[in-house]
Amino acid sequence: ELTRQLGVLNELRERFSRIGLDDRSRRFNTELIEALELARLLDLSHAVVLAALERNESRGAHQRLDAPQTDAAWQVHTLVRATAAGHPVVTTREAALISSARVRSER
Predict the structure, then answer these.
(1) Nearest to residue 51, comparing CAs of 64, 39, 38?
(2) Taking the chain, what is the end-to-end CA distance rounded to the nearest angstrom?
(3) Distance (Å, rounded) from C-alpha 78 to C-alpha 59?
(4) How far is CA 38 from CA 23, 33, 58, 99, in A?
């Protein structure tokens, strides 16, 4: 399912690369703003799907039918960044876990 969504996003990003803007004004150019917003939404969606494909667990809002609930091996932060050439890179780093008892005592 996620792999299929990645294909859909790649198709949308390819279609977006061919859009043209009719409004050439320098002030209050809502067409340009909407195009920029769409570009960022496509980037963000791509990052979310790539990160989800990397994770092999279900936790919080990230639910996978093919993966177990919280896996201790995946208690990490998943980071997605773009290289200078614009290619996405997914990495992880250790998450600092805080017990709920400690959080309650600090309130």
Answers:
(1) 64
(2) 41
(3) 13
(4) 16, 9, 28, 39
65 DSSP 8-state letter: T
| Contact between residue 39 and residue 16 where contact means Cβ atoms under 8 Å apart | yes
Q: Residue 25, SS3?
A: coil
State if pTM tops 0.85: no
Q: What is the DSSP string of 84-96?
A: TTS-EEEEEEE--
Q: Do residues 60 and 48 touch, judged by C-beta distance below 8 A?
A: no
Residue that the structure tokens 């859909």 belong to: 8
* Distance from the Cα of residue 29 to its chain's centroid: 27
pLDDT digits (tens, 9 = 90+) for 12-34: 999 999 999 999 999 999 999 99
- Return d(Cα 41, Cα 54) in angstroms, integer: 20
Please check whether residue 76 is in contact with residue 92, taking contact to mean a CB–CB distance below 8 angstroms.
yes
The alpha helices in the chain, defined as continuous H runs, are 2-16, 30-54, 100-105
Residue from 96, 91, 66, 67 nearest 79 by CA: 91
